[in-house]
Amino acid sequence: MTTKLVAFVAALAVGSSLFADPCQCGKPECTCGDDCRCTAEACNCGCAIDKDILAEEDDSFPVSAEFSLAFDSRYITYGVVDGKDPIVTPAATVTFFDTLYLGVSAIYDVTKGNGKRGGYGNRRGKYTTLDATVGVTHDFDLGETLGALSVDFNYIYEYIPRSCDPDVGDTQYLNLELSLGDLWLEPTLAIERDIMADNGTYVNFEIGHTFPLIDGESEDDDPVLAFRPSVGQGFGNTRRVRGYFGDDHGGLMDTNVKGELTWNFCENFALTAYVAYYDYLFDRNMRHDAREYNSAWGHGDRYAKSCQFVGGIAVTASF
Q1: What is the per-residue pLDDT across 143-157, written as a single tens digit (0 to 9) for each?
Q2: pLDDT value of position 318
């Protein structure tokens, strides 16, 4: 009789556990509220909060897209003028699982004489370059002090229309960008390798800070209005400098001071405006080369200088 009673009690206990409230797991780290929502992250009893998190993860769509249209007052590359008049740049990017992305962009001239310097001829209303991009991106947690390290690596094929000067060929690039956006100065290191035209390497180091002017609805939301000043310094190796200026020495290239104002005017849409100043401050020979490069556009002293002021505006849609 005693054996049967013990067996009955054990069976009753097992059956009761199957139909019991999942909050009553008996774990000391489990603290559940009246609505059966566990308030302790260490709890793994199967409360509603755990099920909600799993449901959100399962319902998340693995594909996102971004579209942008940018207007720049001049076409600037490495701090020198590659187009004296405004350009328009439409772009689109599709990202899978927040890691792998594919993109395409094009640069359109809006005036008749903007492409004469590079041998492109009259390309008003037509594209002068068409870029196809494939890349991967990921954030690595480096702890409370450094925050997240964002790593972005991509390959770009830049196509030049065949109707342009045949001496102006296509180009391919490998790009690596490392940034610590959680730090106050938001340091970013960008490395570009031209693997087709001249095998040149260009490196740019930038620091800046984003100042929220109008906060979002919650701490996790982007600011409605934000201003970000920044300063960057470029460096080119011998092949990069030779490809642009003809000099057989590498060194510090363009210095860039920029101010960006971003307005997230509605959900998924943002408007960004910027002004920037470029100059060759640290290398006398390259400063002279920059003047010569820019003076090829003519117009007297307007372009025959190493410094340039530019500005632009862009609208971005993210889904």
Answers
A1: 999 999 999 999 999
A2: 95
Residue ranges with strand state E in the chain? 63-72, 75-77, 80-83, 87-96, 100-109, 127-141, 148-159, 171-179, 188-194, 201-208, 211-214, 225-236, 251-266, 269-279, 308-318
Owner of token pair 């187009």: 83
In the three-class reduction of DSSP (H, G, I as helix; E, B as strand; rest coil), residue 186 is classed as coil
Q: Which ranges of the chain would DSSP assign to H, the alpha helix? A: 2-19, 48-59, 238-245, 284-295
pLDDT digit string (tens) for 267-278?
899 999 999 999
| Predicted local distance difference test score (pLDDT) of residue 28 | 55
Identify the segments of the chain with pLDDT beneath 50.
Answer: 1-3, 5-24, 48-55
d(CA 195, CA 116): 25
DSSP string, 266-291: ETTEEEEEEEEEEE--S-HHHHHHHH
How distant is the alpha carbon of residue 180 from its chain centre?
A: 12
Q: At residue 56, what is the residue type?
A: E
Which residues does 129 contact at the CB level (< 8 Å), separation at least 6?
Answer: 106, 107, 158, 159, 160
Torsion of CA 143, 94, 314, 119, to 10 degrees: 110
Structure tokens at 108: 């359109």
How do strand 100-109 and strand 87-96 relate by DSSP bridges? Answer: antiparallel
Which domains occur in the chain, in start order?
23-60 (no CATH), 63-318 (2.40.160.40)
Are 233 and 252 within 8 A, CB to CB?
yes
Q: Which residue has the tokens 């199967």?
A: 46
pLDDT number for residue 39:
53
